[in-house]
Amino acid sequence: MVLQSFIQYKAFSQSADVQRLSTRNVKQPSGPSRAASTLVEQDVATGGKRTSDIDEERVAAKEKSSSDGKDEFLVDWDGSRDPLNPQNWSWFKKWSIVLLVSQIAIIVGVAAGIDSSAAQEAAARFEVSEEVMELQTAIFLVGFGVAAPFLGPLSEIGGRLPVYVITLGAFCLFEVGSALAPNIQTRVILRFFAGFFGSTPLSNAGGSLADIVGPTERTFVFPVFAAAGFLGPSLGPAIGGYLGYKVGQEWCDWLMAIWGGAIVILVALFMPETFAPSLLRMKALQIRKATGDERYTTALERARKDTPFIQHLRHAFAMPFKLLFLEPIVFFVALYMTVVYIVLFGAFEAYPLIFEPFDLNPGEIGLTFIAIAIGIGIAATPTPLVYKRYLLPPEERLILAMCLSWLVPVGLFWQAWTAYASIGPWPCIVAGLVWGIGVLSIFISSYQYVIDVYNVWSASALGSLTFLRYIVSGGGIMWTRPLFMSIGTHWALSFYGFLSVVMTIIPFAFYVYGKRIRSWSRYALSPV
Predict the structure, then answer these.
(1) What CATH number corresponds to the domain at position 326?
(2) Closest to 333 in 3D by CA, of 416, 492, 452, 167
(3) Residue ranges of the chain whose pLDDT lies below 50
């Protein structure tokens, strides 16, 4: 148990419910006569007031509870304003969590792309071709995708915080191993596991944000996290280009290990547990400890007691694949996100070829990715304005993508036909900013739409999105260079541009037909 989790556990011992029960006679007779001493009756009896001076109301509450058939031993929050409920935490505490989670998103994204700009130095070190060195980036993304549907549900079993600490720690260890790898085979294997364990905290992050904010608040919080997630891949090549060029490729991995270790320490010391069922379990433990009555349990504890653990785990692992292949919304959003990620991560291999006519060194080529990062930052700005009065239906979340998704093909065509030495590098650089705006707009819009549509199943739906887009974009790393070498920079970028044009139909289609499609689903939010 890490520091903040321990503090939360102790805080429940001072909660009103636990204090009220602990001061009562623990050895009251069981059965109906005990009803007035339960959590539910106490809330009914006092009308939400924290007083204990009206015995008549307690008796009335007892009779009402018995007639209503309420479960007197079910542990829940102490009313809608319970200060221990993450939804009721202060904005300072919530934003501290958002910034920590965003740091995790940045470092994992940087790790995905930091080696791509140092491929030339790495190829010389291991005496292999640059094409072989592309594997280190591709396999990281594949590991990321493979882990998402399997390790993502772990947070719904043991809580968010242990997943952060354990998987981030493992990520750092594999980055150390990558830095020390004596040959390319060892390095590729270690990069796979770095991506594998790097996926879980990022998959966990969306759940953490949903734990602490509602749909309206998420309008302001999610763009920060989303921008961080995309800033990482765009900053990685900029950092790696100069590190590899100046001090050696292995320092890319050392930087990730050191940076990741610092974040693990911050998370262990300052990140609280946010998963409500885990927190309620802490409360139930304190109540059982105070009363000696083992019947006080949470809804999740009862569900797990009735369902074998293996069956619960099997269901959790199967759900992302079930949603991906049976839900049209999930499938087509995943398809769109996959194209977006092929463009983003394909840039790792494409940019050295795009900027080849301009005679830039690896460090300078890495700096061109900063324009993409600026575009991503710009895209995060209008989101709260678009959704500041957000209510149902979920299709309203698609407005941002409908307005800005066209910037992806525009930027790609712009980049394709200005990549001439006679024109200079700046038009190509600015084009990256343009499609960077479109990429983040699609991501924010799509993710929020899926979260709103699938609600309690959103973690599994997002896991399926992560699985498909990272697996395919990992393969995209390997085919990018052959594509550009065979048909040329101009037509290769145009190919991605035409593909993006086709994909822009998706948000418009779901905006018009999304309500009808949701009516067919057993998992999606019912139309209202």
Answers:
(1) 1.20.1250.20
(2) 452
(3) 25-68
